[in-house]
Amino acid sequence: MDVTSARDVAHVRTRIESLTDGLDGLVYCAGVFAAGALVEADERAMERALDIDMMGAFRTVQAFFPLLQQRSGTVVLIGTELSHCAMPFNGPYTVSKCALQAYADSLRRELMFIGMRVVVVQPGAMRTPLLSGAHVGIEGRRSGTLFPAQLDLVRRMLTREWETGMEPADAARVVVRALHSRKPRAIY
Predict the structure, then answer these.
(1) How far is the C-alpha of 153 from the C-alpha of 175, rounded, in Å?
(2) d(CA 11, CA 61)
(3) Distance from the CA of 78 to the CA of which of 44, 99, 103, 186 falls in 20 to 30 A?
(4) Of 173, 2, 159, 150, nearest to 87 (Cα)?
(5) Residue 138 contacts residue 155 (beta carbons within 8 Å)
(6) Catalytic residue among 28, 93, 103, 188
(7) Active-site annotation holds for 93
(8) CA nearest to 126, candidates 60, 43, 29
(9) How many CA atoms lie within 13 A of 187 on its CB side?
(10) Sign of the C-alpha dihedral, residues 54, 101, 30, 155?
C-alpha cells in the first residue's frame, strides 16, 4: 500500500477487516533514503523521507489500531541503528528514522497501559533496494556539492556495507521473535 496516502491505508484496513476481527501484530518497514548534505538537501526529499518513514508509520498504526486492540497486538517498527549515531550525508533518512524512534517511544509508553507492546527493530546495513539505492543517491549528489571528497568516502563505505550487510531474512527472524515474545524488548 502507499503509506503516504491515508485513503490507500484505509482501503487496505477495510480489506483486512473483512477477513479478520483482529490483528496479533503489525510490522511497519517502509523507508526511503535520501543522500547528501543537509545544507544542500532538497526540501521535497526531506518531506518525502518524513512522510514515508515517520508519518507513514503514524497513518498505518492509527488505521489498524482498532484491529490490534482487539487482540492486544504488538506493533513492530523498523528503525535504524543510526538513531543512536547519526552519520553525515544521509540526514533526511536519519532525521526521519529518529522521528520514528521518538514516535515509537511515546507510543510504547501509551499503549503499555492497555496491555499492548511496541517494539523497534534497528538493523544495521541490510541488502535491500534501500541500501543499493543509497549508493546511487550518493552518485547523483556528487556534482555541485561542497563535499565531493566526503561523499566519495560515503560511497566507498556504502559499497562495504553492501558486501557485509545482513540478509533481510536475518532481520525478519528478529521481527518474528519480537512478535512472539510475551515481554519483548523495546529495541532489538
Answers:
(1) 32
(2) 14
(3) 44
(4) 150
(5) yes
(6) 93
(7) yes
(8) 29
(9) 13
(10) positive
The beta strands (E) that lie in 9-111 are given as: 25-28, 74-78
**pLDDT tens for each residue of 14-55:** 999 999 999 999 999 998 887 778 999 889 999 999 999 999
Task: Encode burial over 135-145: b for 16+ CB neighbours within 10 A, e otherwise.
Answer: bebbeebeeeb
144-149, long-range: CB < 8 A, 24+ apart: 145/36, 145/37, 145/40, 146/37, 146/39, 146/40, 147/37, 147/89
Whole-angstrom distance, CA of residue 183 vs CA of residue 174: 14
Find where cell 523495546 sits. 186
Give the residue carrying C-alpha cell 517494539: 119
With H, G, I as helix, E, B as strand and everything else as coil, classify residue 74.
strand
Write down how long the chain is.
188
